[in-house]
Amino acid sequence: MLEVYGQDLIPFITPETLKCTEKADFSACVHKVRRMSGFAFVMLRTGRYVFQAVHSTETCAAPLDCVHEGCYVTIKGIVKEDERANYGVEITLTDISVLVSPEHEYPLHVSNKKIGCPIETNLDYRSVALRNPMERAVFKIAEGVCGAFREFMIEHNFTEIHSPKIVSVGAEGGANIFKLKYFGSDAFLAQSPQFYKQTCVAFFDRVFEIAPVYRAEKHNSTRHLNEYIGLDFEMAYIRDMSDVMNMETAMLRHVMKYLTKHYSHELDMLNAILPDVGEIPALTFFETLDILGKSHMQSDLDPADEVAVCEYVKAKYGSDFVFITKFPSAKRPFYAMDSKEDPKLAESFDLLFRGLEITTGGQRIHEYGEQLKKIKKYGINPKDLASYLDIHKYGMPPHGGLGIGLERLVMKILGLSNIRQASLFPRDISHLNP
Question: Are residues 230 and 281 in the same domain?
């Protein structure tokens, strides 16, 4: 007999859909059971929500003896509105059956509002910790950031690409690159999609990617990961790097509006205060050093500098963001264009958000001779970058772009103290499991 699939889909229960029906019939995980005199509250955790149900022997013949925290169940019940319940809706159970019962009790307090354990314990039991609604909500916000980023990029005629993560040469070079063997040859994990973004600009004009980035940095700080998710875009026919900065500003406005519209549930749960993305101020690197009272011999901003300049900008301009531009050329990648006004400076910028760098971007070199000259200046053998130089050799439009660290952005949106809290399964110098 021929069977036809795709006609009958299991619905995902939301507060809105529950309020529109008189009878509930769905599966969930038992988040908590509060036994009272003659009845019990059964909190039911779905993939996004925690619904309140009431069990009593008067309305439900199925016993509650074998139902406890962590059981996966199917329930049936009568839906009624109740302002005291989560989302203003409560279910009077008429049936409950256990699908799966766990072998062991949770090692963490999953049903508490906050999981309340040290971060190392959280990471050791990550698959349990993420069952806590507040822990889980962080990654719904990350989903929202990615969804908004993708929506904005497509609306502005960017093409989504998927570049290789096993590469023959690193975009940034240096020691912070993971090496591996590839069928007897040396290969690396991609530090950035930079080369591929630039290549694709030649035929798509505008491209973006949401994908992992790998950095073999031996940092053990609250702001570094060795694998993170990069939000990257590259665009052709720019006049200068301000076009890239304007595009990022518009994108961030869209992200915040999108989160407000689609993720208010998680934002409220996490007490998140979204930034007002107005006109973002910009300071040159050396203006920033002057504000901080630092020597011009300094070639980059350290974490304390980033905090201090953001505090200054917040107080003076009321902005949670600030662009820092015109970094010393020698400290920027070989593909960064040098300033025509002062070749010692690069047409490169960082975006700081609430005391942390979340973006690096700028204008790239598009002329073959200029790129070849700078590669040699950096002491790199042009033969090692032959395929990269080919895109310049056969013609490139003026272009620029940027990369954003998703976890850093989410961390600062939510006011988290450690970037590992914004990574589902963090990869850092100490964590390769789970």
Answer: yes
Q: How far apart are CA 53 and CA 127, in angstroms?
A: 25
Count of residues in the chain: 434
What is the DSSP annotation of 277-322? --SPPEEEHHHHHHHHT--TT--S--HHHHHHHHHHHHHHH--SEE
Whether 351 maps to a domain, the answer reads yes
In the structure encoding, which two tokens stand for residue 244, read together?
A: 């890239």
| Count of the separate structural domains present in the chain | 2
What is the domain extent for residue 416?
133-422
Q: Are residues 90 and 137 in the same domain?
A: no
Q: Is the dihedral of CA 378, 383, 389, 394 positive or negative?
A: positive
Q: Environment class of residue 134 by beta-carbon count within 10 Å: exposed (0-12), middle (13-18) or buried (19+)?
A: middle
Q: What is the CATH number of the domain that holds 147?
A: 3.30.930.10
**Model's pTM, two decimal places?**
0.95
Q: Which residues contact 355 (CB under 8 A, 6 or more apart)?
A: 306, 307, 310, 311, 412
Sheet holding 356-363, edge to edge: 159-160, 206-214, 227-236, 399-405, 356-363, 348-353, 321-325, 282-284
pLDDT in tens, 134-180: 999 999 999 999 999 999 999 999 999 999 999 988 767 667 899 99
Encode pLDDT of 393-406 as tens digits.
999 999 999 999 99
433 within a domain of the structure (yes/no):
no
